[in-house]
Amino acid sequence: MEFWFSEMHTPNVKLSIRVDKQLYSGQSEFQRIDVFESPEFGRFLTLDGYMMLTEKDEFIYHEMIVHVPMAVHPRVRRVLVIGAGDGGVIRELTRYSDIEQIDMVEIDPLVVEVCREYLPKTAGQLDDPRVKIYYEDGLKFVRRCENLYDLIIVDSTDPFGPGEGLFTREFYGNCFKALKEDGIMVNQHESPFYEADAMAMQKAHKLIVESFPLSRVYQAHIPTYPSGHWLFGFSTKKYHPLKDLNEKRWNERGIYCRYYTTTLHKGAFYVPAYVEDLLRDVETEH
Length: 286
Prior knowledge:
The chain is α/β, with parallel strands linked by helices. It is built from 10 helices and 13 strands. The longest helix is centred in the last third of the chain and has 17 residues, at 195-211.
């Protein structure tokens, strides 16, 4: 008998992946956590039945959410990561020797525990001495912060359930306050393709545009996420994601990536016309 994991992307579309076995299933205070083994995508993590990452394509998401701001900001020393219990964002950040402090805020300790055990490829750097993990609500944590961080990375789940508070005007305003005067915030920005996802993306973008003087959207192509077309938000007090990109400085670091390059960085901000229209509708309102 064959076993398949299926995730509904819309009421009329679903993604199905053949599964060899289920490695873990548990219920935390916040959500159901499952880890599966598949022949095509390796191990993958789901929360409440929604795909979070697979071993085969997680590098795309994690490289794009980390290296884009790191190639722009000239001096990142302190980073706040909200969410990211799988450890992939931390793994990419620890490749920068000049980062001095990484504060990670994850609401669900069991996610971290499960990923340490079953997804060591992503969670393997969580014990780096520069990393401090806080198990609490990211919305509450960031309220207490002011002028502390050079970079904030919001690696949240979707805008419902435990991650819902990370898609509010209050949260983005507090992130702005928590950043230093030249700080950058990057967030996962949902997909623009299916109607419900596009509406969530527009809503988040509207709230960010109201909080930051400069906000741009960039894209990546992630096979296991709804439609495969995924967006990230780049919001900043000072630096422009293209004009302030320092290709020479970043390339001299010698960080090998499987997806990100400084050439791709530039292209990622040139989004399709239909996405420009969606964003323009929201920005015009503001």
